[in-house]
């Protein structure tokens, strides 16, 4: 049997329950992962709240980021063997003791990376890499990132810096020391944000990545001199402002994004703090914290010992 966090209706974190369910069997092209850790992302609570429509006809799992060991492979899978340490994106909910994943949506976990660190990376790394490529961020350009202290923002900032860009980022003041350490020029949230951004970038910026979705699009368009290189992953009113919403449907290969991030991490040039770790049975609390925001880095569920 597998222990899994599931829900049978849309709603708040109270709809989540830890249940015993039959252990899933991998189908063709899939592997089954014995989960050591699972990452928590804002998209998890947004799906649970029903923001993307549809109905809950049967109980659903929650979570995408997964790290663990392969404990079964489906037909046609030759790239992986039982016992390999891997991480990536789960097809079934990753907040469980076992999860299924497509064989092409996992990568090998290097020995120097803990399972909790690995579980923090897939969605954030994939999204950061994809959005920077969509924005065509290049050396000697200035990139503005809203909510830069979150998982996507931190990885995007450090990738862009490694590629030679200048990065300005909005965040609460208590995060500014860390942001400066990784090469970001921080700008404080709150009243007067627009004016502070104009002061930080008097000549404007080349591109904007909005990971916040809290009303920053008008000043972003102003600073970027138009909408062409303004992109959001969080603003529900993107269409009203004529701004692209990046939903990840054409995300590109996960291994390419992970390779770029691991290369920098292995050289000490990129770090993604694991801000909070919760046991599996406290998944609801982890999603509450995720929705509250203001976490530096990522939230992770510990399922098995590392």
From TrEMBL:
Domain Enoyl reductase (ER): 11-301
Keyword Ion transport included in the entry's annotation: no
Pfam families per record: ADH_N, ADH_zinc_N
The keyword NADP is annotated on this UniProt entry: yes
Keywords: Hydrolase, NADP
Broad enzyme group: hydrolase
Enzyme Commission (EC) number: 3.1.1.-
Gene Ontology molecular-function annotations: hydrolase activity; oxidoreductase activity
Protein name: Acetyl esterase
